[in-house]
């Protein structure tokens, strides 16, 4: 049984002070939730403050990116050891916004994943097609390219512990959610691909999140799909009640 995982990607939102307020409310609202991994990913300068609030709670911390070198003359970057020391367990890698605005490629995604593993961080690896690619019937090709490029060179054991987030770019921040069938179809494809690239054990172990306009009122039908193990949530993670609603909706995966 894969433990459901709901992660909030706060993107470039919330000052440290606002982040503390948000996570303090969230902590209260999800305090009795069990059986679901809950992760928040604030901006880098809020990590240590948020960590102070979530320490000894059921909320875990993630970063939104990392650089592949540990330290040195790389002005403006954050590294695995620093993120780890700030309290992170997870790190989002290869989000489509990074691919779109910051020149992220499969190759740099691959290097960042290696850096994350070297620092003992669990990568949340993002993959997904654009609207143009979906309309051009290229969804599976793009997802295959993202997954194989990102995972190139990793062992079966390394991959088994990763989280992969399928986020169709056309559904991010647009209010257009993929239908549960559309999402399941791609999740199933990714799981099949993991079996092809590695083995059945890896394919059965990797947790697959759906991302793109997830809200409290669509999480249950999404997570009911056999290959959807959680969600990567942007907009709806910026309010404690909507994020808590999504977390609680995910309990249905555990209780049936
Ligand atoms: P959204 O973003 O929930 O606002 O669509 C999801 C994401 O980009 O991770």
Report on this model:
The chain is α/β, with parallel strands linked by helices. Helices cover 45% and strands 15% of the residues. The protein contains 12 helices and 8 strands. Helix 1 (16-29) packs parallel to helix 2, helix 5 crosses helix 7 (139-151) and helix 7 crosses helix 9 (180-197). The longest helix is centred in the C-terminal third of the chain and has 18 residues, at 180-197. Bound molecules: 2-phosphoglycolic acid (PGA). 2-phosphoglycolic acid is lined by residues 9, 167, 172-173, 211-214, 232-236.
CATH-defined fold name:
TIM Barrel
Proportion of residues in helical segments? 40-55%
How many discrete structural domains?
Answer: 1
Q: What does the radius of gyration come to?
A: 17 Å
Strand content: 5-15%
User: How do the strands of the widest beta sheet line up side by side?
Assistant: 1-2-3-4-5-6-7-8
Q: Find the structural class using helix and strand composition.
A: alpha/beta
- The CATH superfamily bears the name Aldolase class I
Largest sheet: 8 strands, parallel, barrel
Bound molecules: 2-phosphoglycolic acid
Number of helices: 12
Low-confidence stretches: none
Name of the CATH class = Alpha Beta
What is the overall silhouette? Answer: globular
Name given to the CATH architecture = Alpha-Beta Barrel
Order of helices and strands: EHEHEHEHHEHHHEHHEHEH
List the helices and strands and how they pair.
Elements: E1 5-9, H1 16-29, E2 37-41, H2 47-54, E3 59-63, H3 80-85, E4 90-93, H4 96-101, H5 106-118, E5 122-127, H6 131-135, H7 139-151, H8 156-160, E6 163-166, H9 180-197, H10 200-205, E7 207-211, H11 219-223, E8 230-233, H12 240-255
Parallel strand pairs: 1-2, 1-8, 2-3, 3-4, 4-5, 5-6, 6-7, 7-8
């Amino acid at each position: 049984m894969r433990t459901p995982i709901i992660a909030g990607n706060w993107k470039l939102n919330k000052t440290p002070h606002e982040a503390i307020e948000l996570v303090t409310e969230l902590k209260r609202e999800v305090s009795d939730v069990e059986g679901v991994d809950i992760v928040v990913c604030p901006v880098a300068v809020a990590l240590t403050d948020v960590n102070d609030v979530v320490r000894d709670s059921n909320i875990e911390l993630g970063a939104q990116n990392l650089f592949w070198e540990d330290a040195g003359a790389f002005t403006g970057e954050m590294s695995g050891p620093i993120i780890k020391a700030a309290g992170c367990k997870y790190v989002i890698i290869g989000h489509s916004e990074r691919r779109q605005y910051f020149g992220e490629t499969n190759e740099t995604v691959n290097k960042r994943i290696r850096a994350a593993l070297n620092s003992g961080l669990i990568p949340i690896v993002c993959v997904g097609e654009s609207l143009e690619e979906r309309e051009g019937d290229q969804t599976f090709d793009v997802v295959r390219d993202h997954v194989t490029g990102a995972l190139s060179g990793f062992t079966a054991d390394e991959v088994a512990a990763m989280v992969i987030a399928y986020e169709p770019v056309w559904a991010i921040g647009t209010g257009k959610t993929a239908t549960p069938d559309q999402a399941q179809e791609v999740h199933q494809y990714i799981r099949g691909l993991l079996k092809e690239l590695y083995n059945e054990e890896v394919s059965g172990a990797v947790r697959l999140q759906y991302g793109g306009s997830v809200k409290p009122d669509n999480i249950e039908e999404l997570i009911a799909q056999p290959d959807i193990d959680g969600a990567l949530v942007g907009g709806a993670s910026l309010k404690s009640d909507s994020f808590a609603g999504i977390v609680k909706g995910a309990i249905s995966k555990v209780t049936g």
